[in-house]
Target: Diacylglycerol kinase family protein
Amino acid sequence: MKPFWFAVHGIVHAVRTERNMLIHLVSSLLVVVFAWWLPTTKLENLILFGWVVLVIALELMNTAVERTVDLVTKDIHPLAKQAKDVAAGSVLVAAIGAAITALFIFGPYIIDKFVI
Ligand SMILES: Nc1ncnc2c1ncn2[C@@H]1O[C@H](COP(=O)(O)OP(=O)(O)OP(=O)(O)O)[C@@H](O)[C@H]1O
Model:
């Protein structure tokens, strides 16, 4: 059971220390609110859930890369920059994918609600 709590501790640490993680959690909450408010299908909710999980999981990995790089060197190094920037890029790619998916799924329902 210990590895589970170590993992939970890691998640709590990332939420407490990473501003971007807070942004992802607020965005995830917004997705839940919209999915509850709009008549989305089970499949659509499942797709949205997958993106939310992917973005949060990648942000956790990004945090791990940042900590590892900082542990290895405090000096300015091009490889340290590449490692951090590439890891951050993976989060950005997923976040853009999630935003586009959310727009495609929620967009038509919102238009239906407000345009008669
Ligand atoms: N050791 C380093 N050598 C060279 N460039 C670095 C180094 N550390 C950080 N950088 C550059 O500065 C940027 C900001 O680094 P920092 O460690 O503050 O992470 P961050 O991206 O601000 O993470 P967060 O805000 O999520 O904690 C990195 O994306 C990278 O481009």
Observations:
- The pocket of adenosine-5'-triphosphate is lined by residues 18, 20, 66, 73, 76-77, 80-81, 84-85, 88 (CB under 6 Å).
- The CA atoms of residues 72 and 80 lie 9 Å apart.
- The chain has one domain: 2-114.
